[in-house]
Structures are given as structure tokens and as C-alpha cells.
Amino acid sequence: MITVRDVTHRYDKQVVLDEVGLSLPVGQLTSIVGANGAGKSTLLSVISRLIKPERGSVFIDDLDVLNAGDDAISQRLAVLRQDNRITARLSVVDLVRFGRFPYSKGRLTPEDHVIVDEALDYLDLQPLRDRYLDQLSGGQRQRAYIAMILAQDTDYILLDEPLNNLDMKHSSSMMTLLRRAADDLGKTIVLVLHDINFASCFSDHIVAMRDGKVVVQGPPADIMQRETLRQVFDMDIHVQDLHGMRLGIFWTTGAPVGPGPLGQETPDLEDTSLTVG
Amino acid sequence: MTLLQSRTERASRVAAARDHASPEERRRRTRIRVTLGILGLLCVLAVAAYLTYDVRGSWDYAMDLRSRQVGSLVVVGAAVGASSLVFQTIAGSRILTPSVMGFDALYLLVQTVIVFFFGSATFLMMGVAERFLVNAAALVVFGMLLFRWLFGRNSRNLLVLVLVGIVIGSLFNSLTSLASRVLSPNDFLTLQDVMFATFNTVDGDLLWIVGAVCVVGLLALVPLLRYLDVVDLGYDSAVALGVPYHRVVTLTLAVVTLLVAVSTALVGPMLFLGLIVANLARQVVPSHRHTDLVLGSILVGILSTVAGQFVVGHLLDNGTTLSVVVNLVGGIYFILLLMRTVRL
């Protein structure tokens, strides 16, 4: 379990995390949502000790993240952020091998090579194995980075906006893949997402943040409510139920119908426009 | 296919995995080895040619002089090559080298200040060894301060760093020219002498000391190389993979400062040498591993200083100096690199 206690952090005078306390469940896929500047990425960076917060503590199970050794954490928790520098002459397999660095410090054992191989298989990267990273498309490169994270073989995986720069097809296959990793491999996965509908359909647990605070958290069904979403995003988002998936229609304010009574769907609309197939 | 197979099942695959490199990968490894081998061979040839070309008169005299010259060229080439390459990695940019960040200007400033405050008499009376020690010590101290300050800023914006380097460089240069304007003509002449790199007159004992320091510095780099491979992925990935980032960067900077300081103190400033050598090495050696890259950069460094000085000294009859040629070629190359990066 990831436990965050009283974490406060500011950039200059701007408070980005304001006494955040949180515990994230094991073996589940958790999404962190919120507007730009709500503190999502900073929270993720603090949990993965990329940023040292002003105050507060972070525990992974009983491991004190802010004070533990580099190896102890990197064998327990993997994190992928978006601003990855692309080194020249780095092939896919070389990148994935870096995932074994916490264990072998660059001198890979035969067992490491097997794990690297498995990670490549898991992401269907064998055909691209010897390609250099700068010869790959955005989606393929993202997959290569995920393979590195999986090769790190940690119980906890943190991803900062993994759908950034991916088209619809690659976004949905990325989410399917992460869902599979949580279900098959028992990984605890925490994502920062911008699209509330991906968060709603793929996660077990949603944490909603605003202005450096956790506004509300719970299963998707609890969060995907018109009134709750209004609190988080300051937008009037109509929520539809489509075969158990709760979808927020956020492209236009108030969306397909005029502002009805809050928190209550209009059944006739659901029948007419959305039960197509 | 599950990722986490049981240990026993995995053990059976371990044996098969000895052959983990694909044919393509093995081809690439061979190519890197061959490239490094050719570079090494060229270095040996260049050194041999430098020593034996057109010896007139006493062989003993020629060998003594030329071996000292070639020794200093090799030491400087190796030190500049290795330090520039790892500096690029920790700076996260191909256009930043210690010289570009103002290190050479710092050297000139230190010289000027010494002459300014103590006069050329003291400067000349100090033996070569003392002058070297003062220079090297001042460069190490101020170099560490300069680099810590540069890297301590949170800004990892490349253009800002280049700009800061250039501003610092021109600040040091203006201070240097201000000080040299108020010098007496005699002092100024003395100063002019040390302002340009020269390989022609290198003290033998000094060369041994500098050579030893360089070897120690290069050996100190060896355990860091594996970490630098990961540092090249960027701060976030490196920390996530358990690299003690600040320790690695600080240690590397210390070694870089030492290497650049001793080689500059030995022969003088060679502004764009590191830039050319490190980038050339990255182009010639198709690898991401720093063991290959640093070795390649050392060899390219030795080759370019020795071969360059061979052309300038033997073929052009010292019509110009190596540092002038290096600055001309390197300056053009630097502008090209800047233009390419900015367009990105």
C-alpha cells in the first residue's frame, strides 16, 4: 500500500500540494484526475521521490520513501514520466535492459536477460528489438518505455500521463495493456490521466485533485457524478451510463440536454441517443 | 505469456539465454570494436609518423624533443576527449563542453590576475612546476565553483545554459583585457605567451606529473561509466532506476574539472577541441555505452591533436598554431551544431 501523509510542497510561493494525505490500494489500478495545476504530477513525483517535498512522508508498505536507499526503492517502485530524453544509438532492447539496472547495475546476469526477453514478448516488441529509439513512432516508443518499467519487475508502477501524444487507438490499447498488467501480474498501478472517461472505464479507484488537495476519492461510480465532477473540474459535465460504463460528456458544457436537475440523468435521452449498439 | 514466471521455470530458460544478443546486435558490437581498433591503429601511426618524419641532424635530440611534444599532445588529447564526452552526458547536451561553459576564459583570467598582482618578474621566476601547480589549483577550485553554480540552478534549459556560458566567458574575457590594458608592456608580452596553447616547449618532469594525474582521473571515471549510461536517459529515469544521481554528477564533475584543469595548465586553452572531439566520437562510435564512447573520444582526441600538430608543425612548418586551426574548424562546427539544435 502506498501511504501519503501530510505532504506539502510549493514552487516558490505557490502551494502545489497542500497537506495531502492518501492511501492507495494494492493490486488495483488507480487514476489521479484533476485540472491542470491541480498537483497531480507533483504528487506522483513526490511518491516516486523525484521531488523532495517540504513536509510530509511517503510510505510504500513499510518503506520510508524519502529516507530509504536508492536500490530499495527502485526494486519496489517504477515510475515513468513524460519528458524522456532520447539518447542516440539506443536500441529498444538496450532500453529495456536498463530496467534491470536496480538489480545488476549494468552487468546483466542470464536471468536478467530472460526477464528482458519476457518484457519484450509481453509488449510485442520482439520485431522492433534492434531498432533505435529515434526510428520508432510515438506509440512504439511509449511501449518500449513501458517494457523497461515491466522489466524493472516492481510491485508498484507509477505513470505520468501515459496517454500523452498517443492517438485513440494507441491510447485504448495502452489502457488495456495496463489493465492486463494489474489483473494478470497483480501490479499496483497509479496513473495521472486527463481523460475522465478512460479513468472511469479502466480504473478500480479514482483520486480527484484540485488546487493541491484531494477533493474526493473512491470507485469510478462514486466519482462520475455530475455534482462531484463540478466540484473537481468546475465544469458542468453530464454523465451517461452506457452498459455500466459511466461516461462524462465534457466536450460541451451542460451537454446534450439543457441543464436538468443536478445528479439525475434523464432516462429518455439515454434510450434515444446512446443505446445504438 | 506471463511476466513473472516461477523461479524454476525461469532457471530453465536462463541456460538458453546465454545467447541473448541477436545477430544484428552482434554485428553492431563487432562494428564498434573494429572502429575502436582502427582508431587505435591510426593513433599509433600518427604518433610514429610524428616521431620519425624527416629527422635531420641528431636523432637523440629529435627524439627527446619530439617525444616530449607527442607526450603532451597525447595527454591533452586524451584528457580533453574523455572529459568533454562525459561533460556532455551530465549536461544533457551535445553542444556543452567545459570550454564552451567558460573554462578557458577562466584560465586566461587566472593568468592575467597572477601577472597583474605579482608582475611578470614573479611569473617568470616561478618555475614551470610552481606555475603549473598554482594554475591547476586555481582552475580546480574555481572550476568546481563555476560548474556547481551552473548545475545547481534548477533550470536545465539548454539555451539558457549556453547563454550563461557565453556571458561568463565574455565577462572573464573583458576582465582579462581590462587587466591586460593596465599592464606594463613587458608584463603584457609575458601574458601573451601563455594565452595560446603551445606544444613546442613542454617540460619533461611536468609532463610526467600531468600524465600521472590524467591516468588517475581516467581510472576514476571507469566505475562511473555504467552509471553515466543511465544518466544519459535524463534525471527522472535515472533516479527511478536507482542511480544516486547527485553523487554521480558531482563525482564526474570533479574528475572532469581535474582533467581539464591539468591539460589546460599544461599547454594553454584549446577552446573548441573538446567540442569537435566528443561529437566526432559520438558520430564515429555507434554505441550508447560510455565505455565505448569514452574510449572512442580519447582515441579521437589523441588522433586529432597528434595528426593536427603533425600537419601544422611538420608540413606547414609552424606557419600557424594548432589552436588557431582548432578554433577555426571548431568555431564553424559549433555554429552548425547550434543552428541544428535550435531548429529542433
Verbal overview:
Chain A has helices at residues 40-47, 70-74, 92-98, 101-104, 110-122, 138-151, 168-185, 196-202, 220-223, 226-233, 267-274, and strands at 2-11, 14-24, 29-34, 55-60, 63-64, 77-80, 156-160, 188-192, 205-210, 213-218, 238-242, 245-249. With 277 residues, chain A is of the alpha/beta class. Chain A is globular. Mean pLDDT of chain A is 83; it is low at 265-277. Chain B is mainly alpha-helical and 344 residues long. Chain B has helices spanning 7-16, 23-52, 59-91, 103-125, 128-152, 158-181, 185-195, 204-221, 225-231, 235-240, 245-267, 273-284, 290-315, 322-343. In chain B, helix 3 packs antiparallel against helix 11, helix 3 (59-91) crosses helix 13 and helix 4 packs antiparallel against helix 5. Chain B is globular, with a radius of gyration of 22 Å. At the A-B interface, helix 2, strand 6, helix 3 and helix 5 of A face helix 1, helix 2, helix 9 and helix 10 of B.
Which stretches of chain B of 5+ consecutive residues score pLDDT under 50?
Answer: none
Give the DSSP E fraction of chain A (strand runs of 2 or more residues): 25-35%
- In which order are the strands of the major sheet of chain A placed? 6-7-8-3-9-10
Return residue spans of chain A where pLDDT drops below 50 for at least 5 consecutive residues: 265-277
What would you call the quaternary organization?
A: heterodimer
Largest sheet of chain A: 6 strands, mixed
Number of strands of chain A: 12
Most extensive interface: pair and counts? A-B, 48 and 38 residues
Helix/strand class of chain B: mainly alpha
Instruction: Report how far the terminal alpha carbons of chain B are from each other.
Output: 40 Å
Secondary structure elements and their pairing?
The complex is a heterodimer of chains A (277) and B (344).
Chain A: E1 2-11, E2 14-24, E3 29-34, H1 40-47, E4 55-60, E5 63-64, H2 70-74, E6 77-80, H3 92-98, H4 101-104, H5 110-122, H6 138-151, E7 156-160, H7 168-185, E8 188-192, H8 196-202, E9 205-210, E10 213-218, H9 220-223, H10 226-233, E11 238-242, E12 245-249, H11 267-274
Parallel strand pairs in A: 3-8, 3-9, 6-7, 7-8
Antiparallel strand pairs in A: 1-2, 1-4, 4-5, 9-10, 11-12
Chain B: H1 7-16, H2 23-52, H3 59-91, H4 103-125, H5 128-152, H6 158-181, H7 185-195, H8 204-221, H9 225-231, H10 235-240, H11 245-267, H12 273-284, H13 290-315, H14 322-343
